[in-house]
């Protein structure tokens, strides 16, 4: 089973050797959709094939 990724954010643009980089990923789940989207924003932003894997 795979996951759909909505957004990826990096803690920094430039990283030097030895520095730590944090990568934040928003994974699309039905619970995430209920919290983040309204029905209208969902219809405007996604196609059903984007949501059903």
TrEMBL record:
<protein>
    <submittedName>
        <fullName>Uncharacterized protein</fullName>
    </submittedName>
</protein>
